[in-house]
Amino acid sequence: MLHYWKLSSPYLTRGHIRLLIPLLVLWCIWRLRNEAKYDGAMFSPTIIIRRVFGYLWRLQRAKRLQAKHWTGDLLVAKRLHFYYRAPQCNCDLIRDSRGHMIKAYFEFLGAQTNAYAGLYAVIRGLRIAREEGGTNVWVELDSMVVLHIIKKEEGDWKVQHLLTKLRQFKWQMIILFTHVLREANKPADLLANLACQKQTVEILSSPQGSSTPSLSLSKLYRVSLDFLIHG
Predict the structure, then answer these.
(1) Residue 89, CA distances (Å) to 5, 28, 66, 152 in order
(2) Burial of 34 (0-12, 13-18, 19+ CB in 10 A)
(3) 215 and 159, same domain (yes or no)
């Protein structure tokens, strides 16, 4: 019966929720039946539902139940309060004042919030700018959320940890934060694709790079780019 059920939908791959829930229901019915027969336990559908949900919750906490297992049923996952964060990518494109690329950097961050990925991108870009001799930096962000967090210094403990690092850069450099539209951030789309495809960390250098202290860094997290300009 389960074999034919698996063939009934293209979504039903190994570990999919539409296969997992029927198996868990049958397993919980069998266990509760034995408990009722031999231990005098009460046989109740509510107990079965609660146990199935408990198994699903533990699987998610152990990272064995992922977003791919909910393909076609993401609305059900949301109603059951199962949430999954989209993977984040961080990219830095470093140019001199003439627009020539000095370095390019991309990194796959995995499942992170937009706030964390955005701040991580800013700090990574500031570190590269400092290594290249930058002291006066202009950071243009296309995320108003990240800009608000930086100005108000608000967020959870992960964000606060990054804000502490950001304050250290503020002590060492003159930094201006402003907002920029997404349309101004297209140059690093290729780096974003590379980050998501390779899921690794790479730093690329250009033979046309210059040692001039005038820099322009553009950074990408998820599908949005930030520009960091040192003049």
Answers:
(1) 37, 41, 19, 24
(2) exposed
(3) yes
What three-state secondary structure class fits 83?
coil
* Cα angle 121, 122, 126; round to 5: 115
CB atoms within 10 A of CB 46: 8
Spell out a b/e string for 140-172, using b for 16 or more CB atoms within 10 Å of the CB, else e: bbbbeebbebbeeeebeeebeebbeebeebeee
Same domain, 42 and 132: no
Local confidence pLDDT in tens for the 231 residues of the chain: 666 666 666 666 777 888 888 889 999 999 999 999 898 889 999 999 999 988 888 887 777 777 777 777 777 777 777 766 555 555 556 565 565 666 666 666 666 677 787 788 788 878 877 887 777 777 777 778 888 888 888 777 788 888 888 988 888 888 888 887 766 556 555 666 666 666 666 666 654 444 433 344 444 333 333 334 333
How many helices (DSSP H) and strands (DSSP E) are in the chain?
8, 7
- Report the CATH number that the domain containing residue 149 is assigned in CATH: 3.30.420.10
Cα–Cα distance, 56 to 69 (Å, whole number): 11
Number of domains in the chain: 2
Is residue 199 left, alpha or beta, with left meaning phi > 0 and alpha meaning psi from -120 to 50? left
Residues 106, 61 share a domain: no
> Does residue 161 sit in the same domain as residue 123?
yes
Cα distance between residue 8 and residue 191, in whole Å: 40
Is 125 in the same domain as 211? yes
